[in-house]
Write a structure and sequence with these properties.
Helix content: 40-55%
Pfam families: Tautomerase
Strand order of the largest sheet: 1-2
Keywords: Isomerase
Largest sheet: 2 strands, parallel
CATH superfamily: Macrophage Migration Inhibitory Factor
CATH topology: Macrophage Migration Inhibitory Factor
Shape: elongated
CATH architecture: 2-Layer Sandwich
Order of helices and strands: EHEEEH
Radius of gyration: 16 Å
Family: Belongs to the 4-oxalocrotonate tautomerase family.
Structural class: alpha+beta
Enzyme class: isomerase
Distance between the termini: 46 Å
EC number: 5.3.2.-
Length: 69
């Protein structure tokens, strides 16, 4: 019973995109590891930019710095 957790920033991932992530993740585990899709779980966690860090600062700050360069 595999569980896949996908973490993304909360920047408007659509329902269609989430469905595609779930489908492709399930298909991959079925094809690569021969796992039963009926017992494969995919979790999508949306993380606020201020709760995601990169290079010692929040992702929100990091992106602002990138835009100013």
């Amino acid at each position: 019973m595999p569980i896949v957790t996908i973490q993304v920033t909360d920047e408007g991932v659509s329902h269609e995109q989430k469905a595609e992530l779930i489908k492709r993740s399930t298909d991959m585990l079925s094809q690569v590891l021969n796992k039963d899709p009926q017992t494969t779980f995919v979790l999508i966690e949306e993380i606020a930019l201020e709760n995601w860090g990169v290079a010692g600062i929040t992702a929100k700050q990091f992106r602002q710095l990138q835009q100013n360069q």
